[in-house]
Amino acid sequence: MVRSLCARLCLSAAIAGAFFSPPSPAQSDWPNRPVRLIVPFSPGGSADTLGRLVAQKLSESLKQPWIVENRAGAGGLVGSELVMKAPADGYTWVVSGIASHVLAPAVASRKPFDPLRDFTHVALFGGPPIALCVNPALHVQDLKDFVAAAKAQPLSYGSPGTGTQGQLIAELFKQAAGIDMTHIPYKGASGAIADLMADHIPAASTTLTTASGQIHSGKIKALAITTRRRLPDYPDVPTFAEMGYPQLVAYVWFSLSGPAGVAPEIVNRLNAEVRRALESPEVRARLRLEGVEANDLDAEQFTEFVRSEVARWTPIVKSSGAATD
């Protein structure tokens, strides 16, 4: 009987230990060496800017260098797939986002990964809205004029590329407004803006970040942006929603993710550090210049946000024809 009681006590202790064991040494002293942050896009874009801003703050707060490495290709799939295959030890992360983890997988003929199953999603950085811009030579004053012009004559628009959010927003706008425009995909937003300024194309649908300098200089005109409300630095640019298109509220968001299976202790600590970094005055000032609205979600809330974005945009990608373009 005593032996039976001892056995039961030992079993109970083992079960309790399984549920309440402290973090392993590898988790409790994380990070104890440099951390690698993959940016799956070329230097200079929003993903690179946000990644480097956050990496600098994390290097300071976590007392270990965060080394940023650009691995561009296939709309963000190349760098993201590299991180997916990395050890889930907290030392390899990726600047994830709607482009690489929602749109590119939906466009790809061979789906390289499942954006939810194959990653640990940690924190949302935020991101810029999409702006519909025109060359002043088109002589339209607002979105209503643009719709009238598109119905009166054939128009084209440039975007950062097939399957990008710039294209998808323009395609949704075309459907809602009952107009037709020819899509001209570029290899990045800067090419579209350059051709827009040169009057080679009459319009472009791209991130506000890329277009901001030319909007402020008056070289191009922004007709609408996809924010919920007007931005303080762009008081004269209306939202699509206020112009009668409430379905066109969207952001080109970026975030921090790692391989599937990263320990919750690391994920929760890193989420708190990223949110703290985004609240720092210098980061907030820089985000405002970039037209970026920061967010404050915990890791679980952010994962649900990714799930909702996959559900929202995948059917839009399919119906737009981007997947077979």
Secondary structure topology:
Blueprint lengths: L1 H19 L4 H4 L6 E5 L6 H17 L3 E5 L6 H8 L7 E6 H10 L11 E8 L3 E5 L8 H10 L2 E5 L5 H13 L3 E5 L3 H9 L5 E5 H10 L3 E5 L28 E6 L4 H16 L1 H9 L9 H22 L5
Parallel strand pairs: 1-2, 1-3, 6-7
Antiparallel strand pairs: 3-10, 4-10, 5-8, 5-9
Helix pairs in contact: 3-10, 5-12
Describe the structure.
The protein has helices spanning about 1-20, 25-30, 45-60, 75-85, 100-105, 145-150, 165-175, 190-195, 210-215, 265-280, 280-290, 300-320, and strands spanning about 35-40, 65-70, 90-95, 120-125, 130-135, 155-160, 180-185, 205, 220-225, 255-260. The chain has about 325 residues and is α/β, with parallel strands linked by helices. It has 2 domains: about 35-125 and about 255-325, Bordetella uptake gene, domain 1 (D-Maltodextrin-Binding Protein, domain 2), CATH 3.40.190.150; about 130-225, Periplasmic binding protein-like II (D-Maltodextrin-Binding Protein, domain 2), CATH 3.40.190. The strands form 3 sheets. A 5-stranded mixed beta sheet has the order 2-1-3-10-4, with helices on both faces. A 3-stranded antiparallel beta sheet has the order 8-5-9, sandwiched between helices. α7 (about 165-175) links the parallel β6 and β7 (about 180-185). The chain is globular and about 65 Å long. The N and C termini lie far apart (about 75 Å).
